[in-house]
């Protein structure tokens, strides 16, 4: 008996006939509606009576929401693997991670050759499939660097670029019967997908043995390979042979295949709606129940399996096998690791990434993380400039799955935002209501980081900081306690979360009162920045004198290597009064020589829209940042010198103030309520020394305070720049209450007790 402990799944194997092209689509939708897990289609590209399977899969992906989709099996000789890899990854991204790849070496060679593909021998076809799997996996491996060069007699890559990475770890299932193909499955595939009508008694056991031996020889655990089975049969009242009889007879047969032959996925070949319903409603649940009971009594090991190669990549000091069972844990040896290890700016190497989906799971994940070796990083979106939402060798707790955006109260425009949501998603969700929340300048930024640090955005002068409109938080503190705080409930913690939240706990959601924002005017202007001093001074003066509806960010790029210095202004007029907008924008155009300018009337979601989140940052970024009370000729001269120093490849000025300065300095833990601008500089070098030296000489004398989101200088004196002493004293008191062990010590840490440093 062989039971690999795989979670049982059930699906359909449908005919892609084109006589009525809606029929297979309707059957796929029915498969989802009755609760099955998987929809698959035959793939015979040479068959004129069939729809093209990949086109059909794409159409069905748009018509369904939950089921996974696969070819059963795709004809690799007629589907170039490099193109198939990109197509599968693209559809996986579009469908939210619901694509699997069933692959075959090709069986009907007369028809294949008729389509213009040279005939291969059986051995050559197996080699070609092996090479195809290598090509597909290589293109998905965006964690590696440089162009791809994969050698192969039948399929190869000669400098292809990697990507896109799929949304989830796509399984590659191979239809196989002969020994050589079975060994290929054991070495390289994620699943074995034979069809029961083609098998003789004992073939499943013999096939499993061959696959297991090949897997072991390749350093894999045989349990890594899912065993799938295409089945056919007829429901009828009277018992018959095999799958020809009443539902209870089917149940007995499939339970036997699961427990004795290790089958984890049953795929029913039928185009009959009634058969699909009976299979879903009377067979699948009973098989699940009986297999679960048998596994419980025999103490069968179930769950994720990792290969010996993957296990060798584990970090010493992390007790991987004790991680909470309900929390998804991704390790360095897992294929999903590449998409999770890094942030937008920094390439990380955490020992494990935890992906909780609920607040309760955050509690469990945090409790386990505290017991492990190494640093603890917390991530919401991963876009942060500092790169502190990853680490090397520690635990990364990623709350990205907590991404719900829910309207709590229409009257007050109160919205609950999951910490893992991105601001692009928030803007898109709120747009139909005519609402918006000021939230930076990029839709990929996570809610949790911005809504606990400050929130200087492109509606800032009219709306204020993001935190200024936060009315409640749910936060998990270091001891695992869940707190819901607002102005009445634990008001001091509520105060601290608005500006220093990363030091006090893991925020799981925040409620914010959105603003009524009609369509806004969004303008981009590109300037010749050869005279950066004059440009900066005029831009800043225009913004300062403009009505609060205007917020503008200015990005200046240093010249060099034959490139002229350039500047781009991103500007929002927070109103749909285009006449007033034009008047102010024309003033802004006078800041310098204009190379390009565009303006459009758009919802705020057109400014900060949703973007795909894939982070593969490089070396830790080197940045400096500070707050400027105002722009003066002296400040402008030194900003120009900073840009021309050769140490700053990019200098940014973000307008703040306006409504953000209406609050008292002690209203939130972000105390900087008189400054007008944020100044930041980004180095193009890996070393800090050059930028730190020029910044300390040219910028620091003018700055008063610090906005942490753009700062990477680790020196402890930055803490007093960010939090003036009265604010810092209050925050230390909060740390002594809520984090006395200093668990949250990675993101500009505030120690519970004062030391010789701030």
Automatic annotation (TrEMBL):
Its cofactor is FAD. CDD domains: Tetrahydromethanopterin_reductase. InterPro entries: FAD-bd_PCMH (IPR016166), FAD-bd_PCMH-like_sf (IPR036318), FAD-bd_PCMH_sub1 (IPR016167), FAD-bd_PCMH_sub2 (IPR016169), FAD-linked_Oxidoreductase (IPR050416), Luciferase-like_dom (IPR011251), Luciferase-like_sf (IPR036661), Oxid_FAD_bind_N (IPR006094). The keyword Oxidoreductase applies. Residues 345-517 form the FAD-binding PCMH-type domain. PROSITE patterns: FAD_PCMH. Gene3D superfamilies: 3.30.465.10, 3.40.462.20, Luciferase-like domain (3.20.20.30), Uridine Diphospho-n-acetylenolpyruvylglucosamine Reductase, domain 2 (3.30.43.10). Keywords: FAD, Flavoprotein, Oxidoreductase. The keyword Ribonucleoprotein does not apply. It comes from the Bacteria. Belongs to the oxygen-dependent FAD-linked oxidoreductase family. This is FAD-binding PCMH-type domain-containing protein. It comes from Cellulomonas phragmiteti. The lineage of its organism: Bacteria, Bacillati, Actinomycetota, Actinomycetes, Micrococcales.
